[in-house]
Amino acid sequence: MKSVIVPNPNPNESHILRNPRTRTEADLTSYSDIKTAYDIFWNAAKSAPNNPYLGRRPFDPATGTFGPYVFQTYGQVAERVQNLASGIIHIHQKALPEEQRQQAQSQRNFPIAIYSINRPEWAIAERACFTQSLYSVSLYDTLGDSSVEYILNHSESSIIICSLDKVSNLLNVCHNTPLLKAIISMDSFGENPNKPGIPSPFNINSVSVLKAWAASKNIALYDIYDVEAIGKASPIPHHPPSPSDLYTICYTSGTTGDPKGAVSNHHAYTFAAKSVHDHSQPEGTPVTFSYLPLAHCYERTVENLTTLNFGSIGYYTGDLTKLIDDCQQLQPTIFPGVPRVLNRLYDRMTAATVNAPGLTGKLARKAYADKLANLKSGKGNKHFLWDRILFKKLQAVVSKRLDIVISGSAPLDPNILDFLRIALLCRMSEGYGLTETSGMGVIQPGNEFTSGDVGIPTPGVLVKLIDVPEMNYFSTDKPCPRGELCLKGSNVFTEYYKDEEKTAEAFGQDRWFMTGDIARFNPDGTVSIIDRKKNIFKLSQGEYLAPEKIENILSKHPLVMQSFVYGNSFKNSIVGIVVPDPETFVPWASKIAQDGKSDIDSLVKNPKVIAAFLSKLDSAAEKAKLAGFEKIKALYLESKPFDIETNCLLTPTMKLKRADAAKYYAGVIDDLYTNVN
């Protein structure tokens, strides 16, 4: 399937690409009567009330283990959603001063913050929001206190629904969030609060302490079952939203400062689900595995797609190291992926097959080579012999029912993409989307097997390129146009909340969204992401440099786990801070050091090791054909990984906070430049 080229008369811009199935959004073939997220859910609840919907693995405190998945049906979830929605309206009114309560009876379109890992109550809370035309404000489970305070204040949230372990955190900072009036725990304050989604120790005696603490802070504290009971006793008729009504404020990762609140309406997310449906066409009734943060738009679009098809959603147990165990229990048909998860799956599978010693490895390499040749010649990813002997066993590591695996959020190595297509025996696509585009926009067709690209625009989405002369990317480049990727479609957000300046910067002429990513239009009609514009800086000699491009190249080296490349307009070279991968680094570095020390803290300080490591990075840069000014001239090896909670150098979506890293390593950077000079 190839993109259709649409002429574009604007100078310094490429032609426009669209999906061959649609000229406009009106051409979407499915669900024309579905206009809002409210419609998506309530249509499914009325059409398939007995279908299993939201599933979790119950935790047994006696054995410390999780059991098989147990599902609530669409009908059961609908009843809870109705009751919770009514209860929220009642407690919102109760939290207001007496003179405002009468007016508040008709008030809608106020925010409800949601703060927890993925779990059924997250979905129930959001569906309760749009049943009464309220909108959600999502908080990543990993956020620190300062980010929680910022988002609650910036969004003006008065009610938050959270997992039980977050209640004490919120009470601890509520003196800095004066608008917060009520906290709703997703977990019962009853006899057995030990449920999945509560990672910290908790016992029933803590409830009275929490309630007293909340009362002293003038915060109303409920559990979700209390609020559902209030709503059941005094039901309020549905107040359905219109397509233009606010659906969510989804806060960006905040890599360069305070996170921006991307405002999206119901039309955006409903269009996103319908467009992905038309593009991917899930087979049968889907079963989706949910573990990527619901605070991000990508996972919510996947869940809306599942609900659109009356499918089931199974939530992980909260432990990322047990994803495979959860999958084997659930047997999903749809697996949303990100490179850091898929890379680990690849490592596990290749270690047992193509990288295995002896006859096992020899046979696996032959099987893989045969299937790879078929894949590259357009014969697909199935093989009558090798699948029976080997690859069905690999597929069963994840799920015997896999239909679709989608990789997003960052580039996936083409070799890994090819291997997983061969091993998992399913449609596997790499896609591209952002918070501002409802997590979608460009996706590989599942029945095609290209690599090194992110596919074609989904139905109803348009893309084009704009020249970036400071980085030497032009729409007239031969053989392929290159430039900043711009998207247009109903999936694009409305604005950044309370930030007219950033909103204006985000949109070009005719409200084309400027992604900040550099792309190439390939001869086969696909799009490849090749660089990043937003984080570029100029060196003192006038050369522009994109650190993320260099970091992506370094991250592919087996010795590298994380990296931070730094430079500025007062320097003529760049320096690097690299966190080595202990598994590969320690044995390699021990041979270089030859001083009898094998602990990573000692090895990263060894001058011989640092010099040898820098030489390895130079070789990687040469292989990637980086220019001389794109090569690291001085290196610091860091034994402690960048993380979210300890050194706070990563966002909740695992992106590097570049400004924070520059401050954190300011002294190190000064020393590195001293060595360069």
Topology summary:
Elements: E1 4-6, E2 16-18, H1 37-47, E3 52-56, E4 59-60, E5 65-66, E6 70-73, H2 74-95, H3 98-104, E7 111-115, H4 120-131, E8 135-139, H5 145-155, E9 159-162, H6 167-173, E10 182-185, H7 205-216, E11 220-223, H8 224-233, E12 246-251, E13 261-265, H9 266-280, E14 287-290, H10 297-308, E15 312-315, H11 323-330, E16 334-337, H12 339-352, H13 358-376, H14 386-398, E17 404-407, H15 414-424, E18 427-432, E19 442-443, E20 456-457, E21 462-466, E22 482-488, E23 495-496, H16 500-506, E24 513-521, E25 527-532, E26 537-538, E27 544-545, H17 547-555, E28 560-566, E29 574-580, H18 582-593, H19 600-603, H20 607-623, E30 632-637, H21 658-664, H22 666-676
Parallel strand pairs: 3-15, 7-8, 7-9, 8-12, 9-10, 10-11, 14-15, 16-17, 17-18, 29-30
Antiparallel strand pairs: 1-2, 2-21, 3-6, 4-5, 12-13, 13-23, 18-19, 19-20, 21-22, 22-24, 24-25, 26-27, 28-29
Helix pairs in contact: 1-2, 2-4, 2-8, 9-10, 12-15, 13-15, 18-20
